[in-house]
């Protein structure tokens, strides 16, 4: 990632220059994210609990924490923020180290990883940096290995809330633009998925039911405007899984 004045300023205070803290005080504070992250792990992580997985831009290690609890013993994460790495250490989350994305990939042996995770990472890169990053990720993945992404969804009616929520965001994505990017870059396939509310109790079940109804109305609007049923991913963020 190219160092620029705005990146240097924002990332130097990335964990403190916010209206709410990015990292909780204790690991118990990760509970609000548990249902969503457990769903991601169950749906998209390799079945083999011994799979080698690298998370790029892992922050304070929330996903690592839940992956380790699910039995993934060979997962590690890197993050460019020393404050985030320190927060992971304070929370007792193992496997988090400081490092820059491209440098970490360059130090990784070819075809040595089963999966790479980039959760809220690619949107911080320019288009040229994204192309360079996915080429490096393809190099370090085994044949059939996967890249698991979570990115802002430009096709969402409220997608701009995500893309403009961070001054360092450069780009949003859609299922179509992700397919264009990865298939043009030699990957075998890419599939995109919505990021709806995860059900883990009565309140979340009611939220999910309300979301389903609103989503149906939005899809009806798009059908009326375009005559197409292809607009299926409407959440503010989306998941994607690209296979090498």
Number of DSSP strands? 7
Structural class: alpha/beta
The largest sheet, given as strand count, sense and whether it forms a barrel, is:
7 strands, mixed
Record the strand order, biggest sheet. Answer: 3-2-1-4-5-7-6
Mean pLDDT: 92
Elements, N to C (H/E): HHEHEHEHEHEHHEHE
User: If helices are DSSP runs of H or I spanning 4 or more residues, what is the number of helices?
Assistant: 9
Proportion of residues in extended strands: 15-25%
Helix content: 40-55%
Shape: globular
Low-confidence stretches: none
Tell me the radius of gyration. 18 Å
Spatial gap, N to C terminus: 23 Å
Task: Give a structural overview.
With about 240 residues, the chain is an alpha/beta fold. The chain is about 40% helix and about 20% strand. The chain has helices spanning about 5-10, 30-45, 60-70, 80-90, 100-105, 125-140, 160-165, 175-185, 200-225; strands spanning about 55, 75-80, 95-100, 115-120, 140-150, 190-195, 235-244. It has a seven-stranded mixed sheet, sandwiched between helices. α2 (about 30-45) crosses α3 (about 60-70). The mean pLDDT is about 90.
Layout of strands and helices, then pairs:
Elements: H1 5-12, H2 31-44, E1 53-56, H3 62-69, E2 75-79, H4 82-91, E3 96-98, H5 101-106, E4 113-119, H6 127-140, E5 141-152, H7 159-163, H8 175-184, E6 189-194, H9 202-226, E7 237-243
Parallel strand pairs: 1-2, 1-4, 2-3, 4-5
Antiparallel strand pairs: 5-7, 6-7
Helix pairs in contact: 2-3
């Amino acid at each position: 990632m190219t160092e620029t004045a705005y990146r240097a300023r924002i990332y130097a205070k990335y964990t403190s220059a916010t209206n709410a803290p990015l990292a909780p005080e204790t690991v118990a504070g990760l509970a609000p994210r548990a249902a969503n992250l457990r769903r991601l792990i169950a749906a998209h992580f390799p079945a083999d609990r011994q799979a080698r997985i690298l998370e790029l831009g892992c922050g304070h290690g929330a996903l690592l924490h839940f992956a380790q609890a699910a039995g993934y013993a060979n997962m590690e994460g890197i993050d460019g923020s020393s404050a985030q790495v320190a927060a992971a250490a304070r929370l007792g989350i193992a496997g988090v180290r400081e490092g820059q994305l491209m440098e970490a990939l360059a130090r990784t042996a070819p075809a040595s990883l089963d999966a790479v995770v980039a959760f809220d990472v690619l949107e911080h890169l320019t288009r040229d940096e994204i192309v360079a990053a996915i080429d490096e990720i393809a190099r370090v993945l085994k044949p059939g290995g996967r890249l698991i992404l979570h990115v802002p969804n430009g096709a969402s009616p409220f997608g701009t809330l995500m893309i403009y929520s961070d001054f360092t965001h450069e780009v949003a994505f859609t299922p179509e633009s992700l397919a264009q990017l990865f298939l043009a870059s030699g990957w075998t396939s890419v599939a995109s998925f919505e990021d709806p509310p995860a059900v883990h109790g009565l309140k979340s079940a009611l939220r999910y039911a309300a979301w389903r109804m609103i989503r149906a109305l939005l899809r009806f609007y798009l059908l009326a405007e375009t005559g197409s049923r292809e607009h299926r991913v409407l959440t503010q963020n989306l998941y994607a899984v690209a296979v090498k």
